[in-house]
Amino acid sequence: MFTSARILRITRSYTTSCIAYTQTLKHPLIQQTNNDTHFVMFETNTTLKELVKLGRLTDARHLFDKLSQKDEITWTTMISGYVKAADSSEALSLFSAMWVDPVYRMDPFLLSLVLKACGMSFGIKRGESLHGYCVKSDFVSSVFVGSALLDMYMKTGRVDEGCRVFDEMPIRNVVSWTAVITGLVRAGFNMEGMAYFGDLCRDGFGYDSYTLAIALKACADACLLRSGKEIHGQTLKKGFDTTSFVANTLTTMYSKCGKGDYALYLFEKIKTKDVVSWTTIITSYAQTGQYYQCIKAYLRMRESDVSPNEYTLAAVVSGCANIAKINLGQQFHAHVLHNGLISCMSVANSIMTMYAKCGKLDLSSSIFHEMTQKDIVSWSTIIGGHAQGGYGDEAFKYLSLMRKDGPKPTEFAFASVLSVCGSMAILEQGKQLHAHCIIVGLDHTSMVRSGLINMYSKCGSILESLKIFNEIKDNDLVSWTAMISGYAEHGLSQQAIDLFEQLIDVGLRPDTVTFIGVLTACSHAGLVDLGFRYFNLISNYKLSLSKEHYGCMIDLLCRAGRLNEAENMIANMPYSGDDVVWSTLLRACRLHGNVELGTLAARKLIEMDPNCASTHITLANLYSAKGKKIEAAEVRRLMRTKGVIKEPGWSWIKIRDCVSAFAAGDHSHPQWEDMNCLLGLLSLKDKVFVSGKDLLLDNINELDEWNLDIDEFEATCNSTSV
């Protein structure tokens, strides 16, 4: 162990030797003095290396600064210490001071260290300058320098340049091969990374456990199960399967490829499960939608006395978010605060997402504003949360704030706000956002394109959606799905079905959302047989049938009047019937006059929500339409007893950049009296009747106050915009 006294003694010894060195020309024993100086230099560098190795950078720097004479080893040792400590700015600062002194010579090891620092700090300009120097001085032919250049370009996002450096390297080793594969896989180019791995194996180069681990990651991300199995075989032959990070990557690969049971088997075989092992299996569960398993694995980890890290907690909180378990999520939030990990951005982002998905946007906003640092995920999460929650104004405000104070908005942020424009049918703002996306060059990304198609479609401009779709040069599933859904929503069922068939012909593979779009089109067109053909096709693509798919089929059967089949599908589907499917059946029973099934559907809905106004109203209307006056009166009496009042419907209209909202029985608008008078004049000219005089009106009390019908009120609102 190095004490301060020993460091001081070495410093004094070194200073004395330097004084002696300056007098060597006068001293008769010049050779002896030089030997003494070199010996002290060696001892000093050894001390410096030991301090750096122990992580005592402050003491090492203190010794370094006191040295009046330094050699290349002294500088390299100190720079190496800062690079290992991830302090790239200090490492580059020291190198700059060394660079300007012509006494010191560069060497491949030093240059590789500095290039690594450039990659860590994204100092691509300085890295390019060093690249030029290495080419000019022929250091680029060194495998160390070449590998460092390759790694720097990959880490700074210059993947093409990194591959070019690798292809031009005269000598390659396992480090350079692993660096190029790692760079490609981490940039999302999994197939290209596997191609390089194939070249490595064919050329007979040796590889290590790190190479196999990154190749397994590529297989996991690209769902290449067969290739993953082959690499698994290689790990068994080489004995790498016992290496912790290889075993963890194998677990992830099998989990992401749909082999969860085998992934769990491999996980259980790991003798010593550390936090990385537990985090791997927990993250795998979260990423594959097995959220309850994710939480159970976390509880098992805690029972094994392994402490979670930030990545573990981020994954398990994400699981809570996706199953909307707010109580459990709040407990994890408290656990995060107790462990002092709330400052970690990945954890804070997960908690913010959890609150947003659970409808607690106020808590999500509080987390966001308390964060001292915010990354692109933080901003995208808060914008997306408000957009999905229907808070359009807030989503726009956060987008403006992001453009002003945050990082450059990504396609996710713009796509979120475009969805708000579509949901609120605010076409003008959507057009302005479209123009901004063109200016910043994001209009060609798949997320923005699909967002634009969806926005124009929901705003009624299906031709504008089609125009954007036709301008797409590279086929992507998201945009095709958006166009199919747009056609279906506009009742253009045949166009939606034709586009779905074209999607398969061009080689795209439909996903679960695509099938929802085409099933909706079949439902609107009443194409029952074709709908069942597409429904059965979902399993052929090895996709899971979701509750939404069953909902589309139930809606299709209900529209076709096949109510008994719809009720049978609800009873036999692998999901418990929710309010959506039972409401669909109830409305269909009202339309087709099926009292027996309608009563059953209403009973199920009232069990879920005893105070649901629309259920009571629809059931009363069904009884009235079939002449069952006593039953209808009983439903009305039950509503009055419970105090059930239907929330009035409302609509809005934009006039001169001002949005006015209207609800039945609403007196808040400053011109409501004028509108009421205008309605009276219109009613005298052309009497407006309520169809179905025996039916129960949606909100009798409010309409009695106005002596108006909802349709009359909306007509008044529309007339004021003329």
TrEMBL record:
Q: Which residues form a coiled coil?
A: none
* PPR repeat positions: 71-105, 142-176, 274-308, 375-409, 476-510, 546-580
Q: Does the keyword Transmembrane apply?
A: no
The record, for Gene3D superfamilies, names: Tetratricopeptide repeat domain
**GO molecular function terms listed in the Swiss-Prot or TrEMBL record:** RNA binding
**NCBIfam families registered for this protein in UniProt:** PPR
Its BP terms in the Gene Ontology are: plant organ development; RNA modification
Query: Transmembrane region positions?
Result: none
The record's section on InterPro entries has: E_motif, PPR_At4g14850-like_plant, PPR_rpt, TPR-like_helical_dom_sf
Q: Which organism is it from?
A: Artemisia annua
Q: What is this protein called?
A: Tetratricopeptide repeat (TPR)-like superfamily protein
Keywords from UniProt, A to Z, are:
Repeat
